[in-house]
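hey m, so remember when u said the tokens were messed up on ur end? i reran from scratch. heres the input so u can diff it against urs
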Amino acid sequence: MSFKDLRYFTEMMRALGYPRQISMENFRQPNFPLVAEILMWLVKRYEPNASLPHDIDTEDDRVIFIKYVSQFMATKTRIKLNPKKLYMADGYSVQEMLKVVSMLYNAVKSNKADHANEDVTERSFDVSNKISELKQARQLATEITMSGAKLYELLAVEVDLRELRMAAVARPLEMAQIEQGMKNKVVSIENEIKGTQNKLDNIANDEANLEAKIEKKKAELERNNKRLKSLQNVRPAFMDEFEKLEGDLKKLYEVYMEKFRNLTYLEQIVDAYDRQQQVKVEETEKQLRRMQEQLREEEKKLFNQTDTFENFADDSEGEIKDVKSRNPRIVGAMEASDSDSEEGSDYISSGSELAGEGEMPISDDEDEETDSENYDDKDDSDDIDF
């Protein structure tokens, strides 16, 4: 007995709810009444309906009590107790009772853990974790159904088979028939042994053939390795020419790459120049359109000026005609009377003077008309040149 066992025993009994205070000093000396009380409480805790003898006054009663407790624990809890140590009622009996107490303590502890786990699983229950178990349960259910159906069929045939079995058992056995059956079995077994022996011999032959093939392949592998080494060491006859051509190819490739880069660069420059020329052409077209619009506006202005000038010329011609109509003697016919000849001569002379004075406005109108015609011709020439 150790101090550690006594402390564990007292702590476990307190945890199990034993009503009495147990001290480690109680087991320094033999104390059978305390041991009997503890054993009775443990038995009642495990099996409340168990009936135990309560008389422990005499030595025989104590032996019966210890024997009954030992048998109960052995049959119910599968725990084997030493009756002699229990009867001693000291520290050694604590070692035996500790077996039962530790079993009950572990049961209570696991029960509490199970309740805690149940609470947790009830709060957070996820079906996805149980999919494999559900599949397994479904498979077992189908197997149980199939096994039940098969068992039912076999039980249905059992009635006929029972009669045949009973008839075979009741039939008297003939020694000659039994002996013949045994001989047939022996012959069949000997044939099986011969077939197995032949297979073993064939296996040995096959093994030898395989070993020969393996050796042959190994020899071929060695020859091929030697040939490979010899080919690697020998330099081909065309290798020099190949290396020379390879060097020429590298140089040509460099030249090709240089020309390709130059060509690409020149194409980029040409594209840029084409874009610039396109922009310039568009700008010149815009300038020409603007110039055309300006010239059209100027032509409109000039046309307006010529219209005003023609109106002015028409007005001036009308005034001249009015003046001529007012003086018929100046411009009229040469018919007059004799009496008026002198006056006519005077008037002619005066009319000539008037005519000499009136030549200026007529010439000015004609000059303006010629200038306007020349300007129109010039505008037409400008239009044609444009």
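this time it looks ok to me. The chain is about 85% helix and 0% strand. if urs says something different then somethings off w ur setup not the seq
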